[in-house]
Amino acid sequence: MKRIDGTTGRSGADALEEPFPLQRRYRQRFLPLLALFVLSLVVMTALAVRQAVRDIHLEFAAREVAEIVAAVERKLPAEWNALLAGTADIEQTERLQVPLQESVAEHDLPQFKIYTHDGKAVFSTDRAEIGLVEENAALTAALERQERVLVPHLEADGKRYNEFYIPVSRTNGEVGLVTEIYQPAWYLRDILIRALIMPTLVPSLLLAGLVFVLSYLIKRAQSGIDLRAARVRELSARLQSFMSSSAVGAVRSAPPGSDLPLRRIAVSLLYSDVRDFTGYSEMVAPEEVVAFLNRIMAVQIDCISRHGGDVDKLIGDALLSRFEGPDKERRAVAAALDVQAAVARDNLPRGVGIGVFTGPAISGAIGPEARRDYTVIGDSVNVAARLCSEAHRGEIVCDAVTIERSGLQARPIGAVEHIHVKGRERAIDIRRIAHADAGPTGGSV
Predict the structure, then answer these.
(1) pLDDT confidence of residue 302
(2) Of 46, 276, 61, 287, nearest to 181 (Cα)?
(3) Which of 62, 83, 236, 366 could crosslink 88 through cysteines, CB 3.0-4.6 Å?
């Protein structure tokens, strides 16, 4: 939108009339944050579940080892205690092989090994591995730090196993042996998954339901906001139609809570009045009078706006407009010529007389806070009205200075006259432009 002063853009008041983008903000800001929250929750839950599964697996593996140790110790307590103390000879170790094999078979373990403190395998379900020395980080952690260790293991045939290193302590608390057992990776997994489905599924469904309901409420709220904003814009547009552009601009540019300041301005004023309007209104129906006024005012407002003028007020069948800024005199005279030409073309039952005067005026809000009018006041307004009263139908009466500054050329203009107007002691030099000599200017003089 381009203003008369050449600037562009939207004011803060225009932005306030736009509906608050609640739904867009919800989608652009809240939903991404919610998605990030859900993702973080899922990741943290997955990590917690993973750790819980590892701990449960380790606990079950430790219990199986404890059951195997207890069973062997009941059968061969001396041999087992010697092995645990690191003093067992070959014969004692050999006698332990049978009860160990039997106990491992009862627990249906695919592989089971026992390592001494130096990493030597003294028992294995694969007898070929007995006597071999194992070195790996998991075994070291179990031996030196007494940690239970789980290591995922993938066999050559593609089967996945969990490899556990479970330390077996002596009576003094030191690690005497480390057992290595294998279990299928799916062991306990299905049970844990079923146990976690409800705690995970129910909150997820509740959260999805909350998002659905919230989205619905946001959509309904946005519809209400849009409807009210549209109503506000409609009311604003209607109210602005009762105000001048200067009044609208002053209200919009004023800071919230502040009063509208008075301005002293140099202005060219165009004052028009329908000739013999009283006689016309006595002869026709009120509806026809209103239709005529609407038509003749619309013609004048269109011409004035086209030349950058601002209609200050409508006073019955009269109109006051003002022109500010550079070339105000030229634009005011050009608008007056266009008004007379347009009224003549429309063959309206009554014409207008126009007075144009340039001088100082005060612009601002006039009246109490309960009812104000943003207008121009001062002697220049009175003079413009007096010049209008001097003009006949189709005639324009301007002060001579305005005609000179307007640069109007190649048009018959009346000679300078000296007239006295009410409220002024000194005479005013005026010149007349008759309708018969005036035509549309096309936006220039």
Answers:
(1) 95
(2) 61
(3) 83
Please tell me the number of Cα atoms within 13 Å of 156 on its side-chain side. Answer: 0
- Pairing mode of beta strands 318-323, 263-274: antiparallel
User: Same domain, yes or no, for 302 and 160?
Assistant: no
* pLDDT over 70 at 2, yes or no: no
- Give how many domains the chain has, as a whole number: 2
Q: What is the pLDDT of residue 239?
A: 63
- Region 97-102 average pLDDT: 90
* Cβ atoms 179, 166 nearer than 8 A: yes
Please check the confidence at residue 340 and state whether its pLDDT lies above 90: yes
Query: Which CATH number fits the domain that encloses residue 104?
Result: 3.30.450.20
Residue range 159-187: mean pLDDT, rounded: 83
Q: Quick one: what percent of the chain has pLDDT higher than 90?
A: 26
Give strand pairing partners of 269.
Answer: 322, 357
In sign, the C-alpha dihedral spanning 383, 389, 390, 396 is positive
Last residue of a domain, one of 133, 166, 190: 190
pLDDT at 438 over 70: no
Asked whether residue 173 falls in the same domain as residue 270, the answer is: no
User: Distance from CA of residue 267 to its chain's centroid?
Assistant: 43
Whether 202 is covered by a domain: the verdict is: no
**Separation in Å, CA 390 to CA 5, 277, 385:** 33, 16, 9
CA 391 to chain centre: 57
For the chain, percent helix, then strand, then coil, each to nearest 5? 50, 20, 30
Say if 209 falls within a structural domain. no
Of 190, 212, 232, the residue that ends a domain is 190
Q: What are the two backbone dihedrals, phi and then psi, of residue 394, each rounded to the nearest 5 degrees?
A: 80, 10
Report yes or no on 112 lying in a domain: yes
131 or 238: which carries more pLDDT confidence? Answer: 131
- Could you tell me if residue 351 is inside a domain? yes
Structural domain for 102, as ranges: 26-190
For residue 253, what are its two tokens?
A: 């540019």
Neighbour tally for 327: CB within 10 Å: 16
Residues 171 and 304 in one domain: no
CA distance 197 to 294: 75
Residue 276 sits in the same domain as residue 359: yes
Find where tokens 């814009």 sit.
233
Residue 70's identity, in one-letter code, is: A
What span, in angstroms and rounded, lies between the C-alpha atoms of 231 and 111? 79
| CA dist., res. 166 & res. 337, Å (int) | 107
Within 13 A of 123's CA, how many CA atoms are on the CB side? 29
The phi-psi region of residue 423 (left if phi > 0; otherwise alpha if psi is between -120 and 50; otherwise beta) is left
